[in-house]
Amino acid sequence: MRIPAHSVCTAIRDDIVAGVYERGSRLTEDLLARRYGVSRVPVREALRTLEAEGFVVTRRHAGACVAEPTEQEAADLLEMRLLLEPLGASRAAQRRTEAHLKVLRGLVRIGQERARRGNSDDLRSLGGWFHETLAQASGSQALTATLTQLRHKIAWMYAVEAPADPVESWAQHGAIVDAVARGDSERARAVTALHTERSTAAHRLRFAAAADRVRTSQHPVNVAGPRH
After folding, report:
1. I want to staple 70 with a disulfide (CB 3.0 to 4.6 A). Which of 7, 58, 133, 220 is the partner?
2. pTM for this prediction
């Protein structure tokens, strides 16, 4: 049975985000095919998709390699998120379904309960699920796909500190859902913008220890925090 390229693409992307493949390392079709138990055909297709997404670059004499984003490219991602997350919430207030609201309210209820109890182990995954559902509620496939890709790339480039006050963070999630449920697009946009701006401050670029190497070699890697 032929394994679809999108499944291979997801597996390779997840491993890049998790740091299994270091920035700049080669991605050979043969090794990837053996690792994921597939032929070279879906691997080749997956690498093309990942190159279009910015996770992979093709280098002369080296072939496919994991990309090495610059500090500016990383900062741009957070700026794009600051613009697009509020837009998605605004659209969700206009286009959400009852099914979307049910899931969003359920996630807020669970998140608020666990935040109050101090059980923060899975709050990050719950938050990711919340924002993914909010994006889907926008009714725009293009916007949802863009936000999903942004989340993947931000997770790859940044380490995120736990919120200082998870109870307040989930109260903000609840305020977003309230605005979406009322169909108040401006309120949904404003609350989401505030929430996104506050959460952005918790993002720190990975591999900060590489700063000295960057200063001497001027090789593009992530070395500094986002702009404010």
Report:
1. 220
2. 0.81
The tokens 């942004």 sit on which residue? 150
Task: Write the pLDDT tens digit of every residue in 98-154.
Answer: 999 999 999 999 999 999 998 777 888 899 999 999 999 999 999 999 999 999 999
Which one, of 55, 77, 67, 65, lies nearest residue 154 by Cα? 77
Spatial contact of 98 and 133, defined as CB atoms under 8 Å apart: no
* Measured distance between the N- and C-terminal CA atoms of the chain, rounded to whole angstroms: 50
Question: 206 pLDDT exceeds 90?
Answer: no
Residues 84-105 have pLDDT tens digits of 999 999 999 999 999 999 999 9
CA 195 to chain CA centroid, nearest Å: 16
The answer, yes or no, to whether residue 9 has pLDDT greater than 50, is yes
C-alpha dihedral (12, 14, 17, 23), degrees to nearest 10: -10
Angle between helices 71-95 and 185-200 (to 10 degrees): 150
The per-residue pLDDT for range 17-48, each reduced to its tens digit, is: 999 999 999 999 999 999 999 999 999 999 99
* Nearest of 67, 89, 217 to residue 157 by alpha carbon: 67
